[in-house]
Design goal:
With about 500 residues, the protein is of the alpha/beta class. The protein has 18 helices and 19 strands.
């Protein structure tokens, strides 16, 4: 028999090893039919014979054994046929180089690779696992009665590891990939030397107002919404795109080999349209939109962390602009993000030092040219950056939880200063005062107590105070309706700001 001869040896034996915890097979156990397809890479023809002889004499499992000489021939065979396990002989003189194991590993990641080795020094075993083997056995074990058991064990352990690997790289709620898998795939894509000359883009998608929906209706609806979003994303994206849920209501999407920026824009626009559709849950229609940040890889210097950071900055910009939109990362956004980080640290000090002040934006009756009222606006007198407008720090107050004490200060201060203007005769007592309320403050535990503290105003004065709310509040109308009614019960008026920019719905308005 020549070394180059392929020995196709098949052994058919009934029964499957019933217990993985015992090395003794019990003939009394129920037997089932199974087949394991094993590829045996031999160093010489005699080793093929002894491997076959052991399986033939001892096997309780049905095997199909293919013995072949040479790694290159084995690699070709792996391209033609599926195997459950590959056993490869390693001589003492390293006749099979460890690089050859990498060749076999590169052909398939789903089969068990078992080295049949002579040397069992720890450093050598470490090299075997580093090269890619899943297990190893002694060369003397080729003739042991336990060989069939070793083969079955190697295959089952590989399958178990693959299942664990799937679990560790999969999001349990949506079934999408998780952050670790996404980062791994993005790194592979960046490192691919054969990557075509096309655009690589990372999208970070964050659901608008998801926290309100989750808090109002519970995690059952929240999880249902996340699964629905995941299904919509999979239906809208290409098979080659990588989609992952990376925590909470955030999703990452890897767009590879994009021809131009316009194609990325079309995908982002389509995603916004798809996600804007209502989700039905137990007879209720739930609406949500998304903010999408997009980062493209413009140079080879931009690695995984840089792309993710840029996508996050762009997403925050989209959310700050009102949500339900996509934004590409720009260097100006990075400067703004750096400023935002420093402002967040300084906001606590600003509250303590009372660096905030109010301005009143007049509302004039166009017909009579008389003052109708004013909307109170907060400003921050920053020691380094000068006067900052609300758009530069209100989102930070909301995200840090500082919105409650600041809003309380705004309400008390605005009413006090407004009454002073009336007493001085600067404005009439029938002029309207409008005060903006953040949805975050409306759901804060201190909301009702703040209104109670200003409850001593005259009924006439209350009738001229308007609390303005944005329509984003109506993403969770059932949970907030009690607070809206409480404003009316306290004698104040309600008005809506920016209607039509987000969750515009006449049914919600009613």
């Amino acid at each position: 028999m020549k070394d180059s001869t392929i020995l196709q040896l098949s052994v058919f034996v009934m029964g499957l090893i019933a217990s993985m915890n015992s090395y003794v097979y019990s003939a009394e156990q129920d037997k089932t039919y199974s087949q394991l397809n094993v590829l045996h890479i031999v160093d010489e023809p005699s080793t093929a014979f002894w491997f076959f002889k052991s399986l033939h004499e001892q096997a309780e499992t049905q095997f199909t054994l293919t013995s072949i000489h040479g790694v290159s021939r084995a690699a070709s065979r792996l391209e033609e046929e599926d195997y459950d396990a590959v056993f490869i002989h390693l001589k003492c003189d390293d006749d099979y180089n460890l690089d050859d194991i990498g060749i076999i590993k590169g052909k398939t990641a789903e089969i068990a690779i078992v080295a049949i080795a002579h040397s069992f020094q720890q450093n050598y075993i470490d090299l075997l696992f580093k090269a890619g083997v899943d297990d190893y056995i002694r060369s003397s074990d080729v003739t042991t009665p336990l060989l069939p058991r070793l083969v079955s064990y190697a295959v089952e352990r590989k399958k178990s590891n693959l299942r664990l690997s799937t679990i560790s790289t999969q999001d349990s709620v949506t079934g999408l990939s998780n952050r670790e898998f996404f980062i791994s795939e993005l790194q592979k894509h960046i490192n691919n030397p054969l990557r075509p000359n096309a655009i690589t883009a990372v999208m970070l998608l964050d659901l608008d107002q998801f926290k309100y929906i989750n808090d109002a209706h519970g995690h059952s609806l929240g999880d249902h919404l996340l699964r629905n979003v995941a299904d919509r994303l999979k239906g809208a994206m290409r098979q080659t795109d990588v989609i992952a849920r990376v925590g909470g209501d955030e999703f990452l999407i890897l767009l590879s080999d994009m021809p131009n920026l316009d194609s990325i824009k079309r995908i982002a626009k389509n995603l916004l349209d798809v996600l804007a559709q209502a989700v039905n849950f137990q007879g209720k229609a739930v609406f949500t939109t998304a903010s999408i940040g997009i980062a493209t890889r413009d140079t080879d210097k931009e690695g995984v962390e840089t792309l993710l950071k840029h996508a996050d900055i762009a997403m925050y910009t989209a959310k700050q602009q009102g949500g339900n939109r996509y934004t590409f990362f720009t260097r100006d956004q990075q400067v703004a993000a750096s400023l935002r980080t420093s402002l967040e640290a300084e906001l606590h000090k600003a509250i303590e030092q009372e660096d905030f002040f109010l301005t009143f934006q007049p509302q004039v009756n166009a017909e009579s040219n008389t003052l109708h009222g004013a909307e109170v606006l907060i400003r921050w007198k920053h020691p380094q950056h000068g006067i900052l407008s609300p758009g530069e720090f209100i989102p930070i107050l909301e995200s840090t939880g500082l919105i409650a004490p600041v809003t309380e200060w705004v309400i008390y201060t605005a009413i006090r200063e407004w009454e002073a203007l009336i007493e001085q005769g600067i404005i009439k007592d029938n002029c309207e005062l409008s005060i903006n309320l953040s949805p975050r403050f409306l759901s804060h535990p201190s909301f009702k107590s703040v209104l109670n503290k200003i409850g001593g105003l005259s009924e006439q004065a209350k009738q001229h105070i308007h609390f303005e709310i944005t329509e984003n509040l109506f993403v969770d109308p059932e949970n907030n309706i009690d607070n809206l009614r409480y404003i009316k019960e306290c004698g104040f008026k309600l008005s809506m700001d920016d209607f039509g920019t987000g969750y515009s719905s006449l049914s919600y308005l009613k």
